[in-house]
């Protein structure tokens, strides 16, 4: 599909900042937010350090009386609350969005269960470590930032207040003083040079502060965030919810298909056979016609049950594997499909089933929506992963957004550590690649 592009001219040229970053940095909100983070961080870090030392000393000193355990647990719990404050401060002033750790889950109810959960939590100890390590860094960052910013401001604005010092017969601000000589800013040229130096320092100050808070960013992200284990548990819980919802939806579909399909047909068949039985002596010919119609209904009901069983788990997949099962699926597609399966062995049965239903759903999309003339299915194994790729020459435009069927398919694959990648530009072609664990 052709697309018209307007020529790049002076009028439609992308516009950026005309002022270089080094000149506009002191006037941007980011520089002042980072400076505020450093200034506020000093009293907070001192309070946290005192609390950390108090927690450790009291906890260790009272361990012989058993009171040290709940005291230590209480201190760790306070530091978890301190972590909430620090993450909020980093989020508001530094734009650093750190995920909150998982809430504590006690193995046993009651106070001792809670104490054990706090003491066993690595997150709690990392919060305590942050309170200890951050204080010396906060003192250093505060000192460096204040010195540079104050010197820059005082030197830059010296011509505004220096005249008041020299007008009273006093020398200007002393820069150097020794046994033999002293250097004062008491001449106009010296004041101008001092102001220029202060301007240079002010231009450099935001970058110095930014370098300092980068260490704070690292400490917050590593010590106050959720652990990799917490992230994995959260992911598994989410995946479990997807699996449960998918299983419930499949059960509802099976129940609906049985109720509206084979069950209703078998009920009608039983009624027809009952009528045929009543007419058997009075009107044998009518009874024979009814039995013949019932025989046809039996065939239809059997076909519906076979289709339903194939939708649950096809026998060909169990008996002959993915190659034969996917070839059977491809034969029912409305467009010609080329199937190529190159596997060294059969993967785990559960993964094999997911792969089968993934390809089945993708080929159904090709039949219903793609307007394609041909399609292909490729299956291979690489690096302990099962790879599936379905390609068609249809109109394209497929995506996993907007609550589409592909979005649900991506969720089901994610529940087993799988990945679904969709490449479907408007106008086609469409290539959908799925990656699943092998687990053979």
Explain the overall architecture.
The chain is 64% helix and 10% strand. The protein is built from 13 helices and 7 strands. The protein has helices at 21-24, 29-61, 68-94, 111-120, 122-156, 158-166, 188-223, 228-279, 284-312, 315-320, 322-331, 349-370, 405-414; strands spanning 174-177, 182-184, 337-342, 375-382, 385-392, 419-423, 430-437. Strands 3-4-5-7-6 form a 5-stranded mixed beta sheet. It has a two-stranded antiparallel sheet with strand order 1-2. Strand 6 and strand 7 form a beta hairpin. The longest helix has 52 residues, at 228-279. Residues 1-14 have low confidence and may be disordered.
- For the report, how would you describe the main beta sheet? 5 strands, mixed
Report the β-strand fraction as a percent range.
Answer: 5-15%
Report how far apart the termini are. Answer: 44 Å
Low-pLDDT sequence parts: 1-14
Which H/E pattern describes the elements?
HHHHHHEEHHHHHEHEEHEE
SSE arrangement:
Elements: H1 21-24, H2 29-61, H3 68-94, H4 111-120, H5 122-156, H6 158-166, E1 174-177, E2 182-184, H7 188-223, H8 228-279, H9 284-312, H10 315-320, H11 322-331, E3 337-342, H12 349-370, E4 375-382, E5 385-392, H13 405-414, E6 419-423, E7 430-437
Parallel strand pairs: 3-4
Antiparallel strand pairs: 1-2, 4-5, 5-7, 6-7
Gist?
The chain is an alpha+beta fold and 440 residues long. The chain is 64% helix and 10% strand.
Descriptive labels:
two-stranded antiparallel sheet, Heat Shock Protein 90, elongated, 10% strand, 3 domains, alpha+beta, 440 residues, disordered N terminus, Single alpha-helices involved in coiled-coils or other helix-helix interfaces, five-stranded mixed sheet, 13 helices, single chain
